[in-house]
Amino acid sequence: MKIGITGAEGRIGGYLRAGLSVAHQINSFTLTGQQFDSTVVDISDADAMNGAFSGLDAVIHLAGDPSPAGSWESMLKNNIIGTFNVLEESRRAGVRKVVFASTNHTQHGETMGASPEILDMSKRVMLRLNDYFNPSSIYGASKATGEIYGRLFARHHGVQFVAMRIGAIGDEDSPLRSVGKPSEDYNRAMFLSRRDLVTAFKKALEVDRDFTLAYVISNNGRRIFDMRETNETLGFYPEDDAETFFEKP
Ligand SMILES: NC(=O)c1ccc[n+]([C@@H]2O[C@H](COP(=O)([O-])OP(=O)(O)OC[C@H]3O[C@@H](n4cnc5c(N)ncnc54)[C@H](O)[C@@H]3O)[C@@H](O)[C@H]2O)c1
C-alpha cells in the first residue's frame, strides 16, 4: 500500500516509519525539512494541503500537538483544523482510509486524578469504547472532535476511519521512567510498547470497516480500558504488559 504519514518526524512517526516500511511505501509529511525524504506542509493550512494526498491509499494521521497541557489556540489550529484538513484532503484525493492518532485522554477525565497524567486509583472502572467522551483536557476534547469529524467523513464521504485511542508511549520502550512519581499508576495502566504500537497500526491498515474505535495500549495487568471490542474488531491482541517491567529484579 502507498501510505502517507503526517507528523512523520515525531516520536510515533519514527517508530511507525521503521515498523511499516518493509511492507508499505511510506510518504512522509512533516512540518519542517528532515534528514529523510518528506513533503513539508502545515496541516492547518487548507490551501497548502490541497493536492498533498493524491495517489495515496491510506493516511496515518499523527501530526498535532500531543500535550495534555496544550493551549486552546494550539489545539484549535493543529488538532481540530489540522485534522479537518487531513480528512477533507483525503476525501478529495480518494484516499480509502485515515488512521487517526486519538488518545486515552478522550475518556480519561473519568479516571483522572489531580492532572491528566495521574490516575485516581479509587475509581475502579473498566472503560469501554462506547462509553461517552469524558476528556481530561482541552487536548482530550480536541481529539474527541477529530473522532467526530472522522465519523462524519466515514458515514458520508466514503473515507474509512480508524480512531486509535493511544495510551502512553515515550522515548524509552518501558514504563519505568515514572516509578515513584505521581504518574506511575497512569503509566502502568496506559503503557504502550513499540512492538504493540506497530502491530496495532498494521491491523488498522488491514481492517475493512467504515468506522472503528480502538484502544491502543499494551496488555497491561492494571489497564482501565476493556480490550475485548478492540480484540474483536481490529484483531489487535497486544503482547506486552507494563507489569513485567516492574517484576524484574
Ligand atoms: N506519545 C503518546 O503517548 C501519545 C498518546 C496518545 C496520542 N498521541 C498522539 O499521537 C500523535 C503523535 O504523537 P508523538 O508522541 O509522536 O508526538 P510528537 O510531538 O513527537 O509528533 C507530532 C508531530 O506533529 C507535527 N506537527 C504538529 N503540528 C503540525 C502541523 N500543524 N502541521 C504539520 N505537522 C505538525 C510536529 O512537528 C511533530 O513532529 C499526536 O497526534 C499525539 O496527540 C500520542
Provide tags for this entry:
249 residues, alpha/beta, Rossmann fold, seven-stranded parallel sheet, 8 helices, 7 strands, binds nicotinamide-adenine-dinucleotide
Describe the protein's topology.
Layout: E1 2-6, H1 11-20, E2 25-30, E3 39-40, H2 46-49, E4 58-61, H3 72-93, E5 97-103, H4 138-156, E6 160-166, H5 184-190, H6 194-206, E7 211-216, H7 228-234, H8 242-247
Parallel strand pairs: 1-2, 1-4, 2-3, 4-5, 5-6, 6-7
Bound molecules: nicotinamide-adenine-dinucleotide (NAD).
Would you write up a description of this structure?
The chain is α/β, with parallel strands linked by helices and 249 residues long. The protein has one domain: NAD(P)-binding Rossmann-like Domain (Rossmann fold), CATH 3.40.50.720. It has 8 helices and 7 strands, in the order βαββαβαβαβααβαα. It has helices spanning 11-20, 46-49, 72-93, 138-156, 184-190, 194-206, 228-234, 242-247; strands at 2-6, 25-30, 39-40, 58-61, 97-103, 160-166, 211-216. A 7-stranded parallel β-sheet has the order 3-2-1-4-5-6-7, with helices on both faces. The mean pLDDT is 97. The structure holds nicotinamide-adenine-dinucleotide. Nicotinamide-adenine-dinucleotide binds at residues 7, 9-13, 31, 42-44, 62-66, 78, 82, 101, 103, 166, 168-169.
